[in-house]
Amino acid sequence: MGSGISKIVKAPRERVYLALTDPAALTVWQAPGEMTALVHEFDLRVGGGYRMSLFYPSSEPEGRGKTSGREDRFTARFVELVPPEKVVQAINFDSADPAFAGEMTMTVSLETVRDGTEVTISFDGIPPGIRPEDNDAGTRMSLEKLARYVE
C-alpha cells in the first residue's frame, strides 16, 4: 500500500464519511483546484460506485484532459464501505491513452483524533501517465476542499 497523504479536519468522522459517500459532496471537494465536477450516476453499495467527470477550467491550456481536451472521466467502484471508518474505491479512467489504463485503488481512512478526524488518502496502482507528484498535489488540494466542506 502506498503511503498516504493525511489532514486533520475539525469535524466528526460521521460527517466526513457522509462527504465521502454523497454525490453532491463529491462534486464539491473531489475536484482539485479550479476544476469542476459532475457525477453522472451513483450507487452507494459495495460493488456499486459512480461515474464522474472532472473538467479543467478555461484558464488551463486545452488538451490536458485524459478523456478529451478538458475532461477527465472515470468510473469508481466501491470495493469496501466501512462507516464511519473507511472507503475503498477502484478507479478506472475513460481514456484511449494506454498511459492512463489500468485500475487504481484509492483508500480513504478516517481516524478520530483530539481535534476532529484524521483523513488519510492513499493510492495503489497509479497509472504510469499520472506523475506521482501531480497526484499528491491534487490529493492535497482535494483534502483542503474536503476540510472546508465538512468544517
UniProtKB/TrEMBL annotation:
Segments traversing the membrane: none
Listed Pfam families: AHSA1
Gene3D superfamilies associated with the record: 3.30.530.20
Location of the Activator of Hsp90 ATPase homologue 1/2-like C-terminal domain: 10-151
SUPFAM superfamilies: Bet v1-like
The family this protein is said to belong to: Belongs to the AHA1 family.
Name this protein carries in UniProt: Activator of Hsp90 ATPase 1 family protein
Organism: Fimbriimonas ginsengisoli Gsoil 348
